[in-house]
Amino acid sequence: MKIKDDSAQTSVVKSPSRRYILVKEFNLKVVVPASTSNLGPGFDTLGLAVNRYMVIESDPADSLHIEVSGEGSAGIPKDENNLVVVAMKKILGEVPRLSIRIDNGIPECGGFGASGAAIIGGLLLANEMSGKKFADTDIYNLAIELEGHPDNVSAALYGGMIVNARNGDGKYSHIKIDIGEKLKFAVLLPDNKIETETARKLLPSSITLKEAVTNVQHSSLLVAAISTGNYELIRYAVRDEIHEKHRKKLIPHFELFNKVALEGGALAFTISGAGSACIAFCTDHCEGVVDAFAGMIRGMNLNWRAEMMEPVNKGAEVASGKFKTVGLGGGK
Question: What are the φ/ψ torsions at residue 143 (nearest 5 degrees)?
Fold first, then answer.
């Protein structure tokens, strides 16, 4: 993606013997996709990028200044506690002197990786400023360190569906699987936001062997179904014994919307990430499932939304800010 800013800026830098002019061609801009994670049985393992985006732009400034627009803008920090800045400090070692503009198109209810997108955006911005001294694999592992789990940040960085696993040395490995055009999601967006930390506190400290085997079997089947395009098997693969039965208690009417989704032709219905957003896997009838969700929302007088989302195979993209240095001759 090549993103240009036609309003070039200039500044003059003086040295004892020469003067230089720096011509700013365009600002630094990162576009990062949202992501759904877990996908049922793939707890802290599977992430999948979808077509909602966080756009982050920056320009040099005398001090840090942050503007936020879009989803949940009122609740996003506008100081050095902003996750974009936290991530940038991981590479730069200090708070950057930048004017940063964040346009957030990722639903604020939780479940579509807004924090992961901010972390990836911040790391990529800082890496660009530092001369790209970190490779993608370094960015990937730094993001996991900041986020605490790999699913959303990996999908935001690489796009497609990412299968993640922790190595014996504490670093992570991954494989990307591109998604075919037929798979879509009918998405339910409640008006209550669930923080990931809150949702994690509901999980048990241990599970039974039977529960573990169930998730290994079904997450393996889900990865095989999506990677081969055998989407019909998704209706059997999206079965979880680790997190959903605990977290669905935080989502009003979960079972009712599950029933509506399946009756409308969806292959499966599950929580997106930690919630409160939920996704219905569809190949056919996706618009009908969205309409059915919307009808239920109106009938129950809920302040919720229903939308259709699609997988995207492109991850975060950067337009590099460039500066031309032009000598103006001698003089002080």
Answer: -65, -40
Whole-Å CA distances, 186 to 80, 230, 232, 317 = 36, 19, 16, 26
Q: Is the dihedral of CA 207, 212, 214, 219 positive or negative?
A: positive
What per-residue confidence (pLDDT) applies to 8?
A: 40
Question: CB of 105 within 8 A of CB of 31?
Answer: no
CA distance 298 to 291: 10
> Which 3 state secondary structure label does DSSP give 73?
helix
Q: Report how far residue 288's alpha carbon sits from residue 295's, in angstroms, rounded to the nearest whole number.
A: 10
Task: Note the maximum CA span of the chain.
Answer: 79
Asked if residues 67 and 104 have their Cβ atoms less than 8 Å apart, the reply is: no
For residue range 262-291, list pLDDT tens digits in order. Answer: 999 999 999 999 899 999 999 999 999 999
**Opening angle at CA 185, ends 252 and 48, nearest 5:** 100
Sign of CA dihedral 274, 104, 119, 89: negative
Confidence of residue 190 (pLDDT cuts 50, 70, 90): very high
Beta bridge partners, 46, equal 163
Rounded Cα gap, residues 157 and 32, in angstroms: 7
d(CA 80, CA 62): 15
How buried is residue 294: exposed, middle or buried, by Cβ count under 10 Å (0-12/13-18/19+)?
middle
Q: What is the mean pLDDT of residues 206-212?
A: 96
Q: How many CB atoms lie within 10 A of CB 201?
A: 9
- CA gap 97, 234 in Å, rounded: 47
CA nearest neighbour of 243 among 277, 216, 270: 270
pLDDT tens for 60-117 read 889 999 999 999 999 999 999 999 999 999 999 998 889 999 999 999 999 999 999 9
CA gyration radius for the chain? 22
* CA 288/CA 100 separation, integer angstroms: 40
Comparing CA positions, the residue from 138, 118, 130 lying closest to residue 33 is: 118
